[in-house]
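Quick one before lunch.
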Amino acid sequence: MNSTLPATSIETVEVLLLDVPTIRPHRLSMTTMHRQTLVLVRITGNDGVAGWGEATTIGGLAYGEESPESIKVNIDTYITPLLLGADANQVAARMHHIGEHVQGNRFAKCAIETALSDALARRLGVPLSTLFGGRVRESLPIAWTLASGDTARDIEEAEKMLAQRRHNIFKLKIGARTVQQDCAHVAAIKRALGERGSVRVDVNQAWTETEAMLGMQLLADAGVDLVEQPIAASNHDGLGRLRQKNRIAIMADESLHGPQDAYQLARVGAADVFAVKINQSGGLAGAQQVAAIAAAAQVELYGGTMLEGAIGTMASAQLFATFGTLAWGTELFGPLLLTEEILATPLRYRDFALELPSGPGLGITLDEDRVNALRRDRKTPLVSVA
Ligand SMILES: O=C(O)C[C@H]1C=CC(=O)O1
Ligand SMILES: [Mn+2]
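Model of the MUC complex:
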């Protein structure tokens, strides 16, 4: 029995795959995205209250060890039987039980924990952020990723974002071309934007350590503020060496798969900044622990994304809003990269920030007709629902 709520039995766990086109090709060092697959999870209790969660990865298996399809099949086959009939309101107990029976599968666990937490917060009539200690801020700064692969197009895109007052922090995806070509591309963009925008790069592990030495010197000279994951995820010592030898801040992203990595990275002084992500951390509680380790080790924080749609983006935002400091802002722009809206009321992006809603749970309402129209298992061909 929960101290504030009667037990609520879990009746259904549904997993939907939604394929949503991106507004333009999104080029990363390891893949080019033309669509994103949202794995949506809806968990409904015997009181009729439903909670939503989401898992996403990037480019199938190109970025992480879970694919949208593996997330669905592993939830359906292994996780749902652990949940059905159990008390929906004991979120920590449910996640502990899953952890005892399911190794890995961080993204799947994140979607489940988010859905349970959303439903619990809705039953309590409080925003999801309240379950994690309450908000320190009501809006979050939002970076935009320039990843068209074309310098002139990226500059045009950045100018548009600045004019609309939507973003003034720009992350450039590099690593697919030579170090010199990539750094010339970045320098041209920084020259065009000047002090009007912060320019950062994400190499997504593409450089060797010696390439990173050269690249980081060129990037520092160009006025870039930060380099994200320049070298292989497993090379924590290498990150530390680069950090010692360069004046540009280093952010760990793919190296950081939850609290244990956070501890190890902090211990060897591998990074100035952690990109904390709810999916990579195995859920909201894991991401909160990453933030706590960062705070204890005086590592700065950045709210990262796995290019989630509206549900995962808002779940991340609800948690990140509880962080005491968020020195490098966030990149919770995922829904803006997609051509289709799945919410009845879109998220509010303005004045370079995402505003947090005040309603219970995630504080968002899905447009179920739009969700159904985008489902991979829909009966009718996809038509634009925008
Ligand atoms: O950070 C990553 O590596 C993943 C993701 C975040 C933004 C983006 O464009 O890609
Ligand atoms: Mn990254």
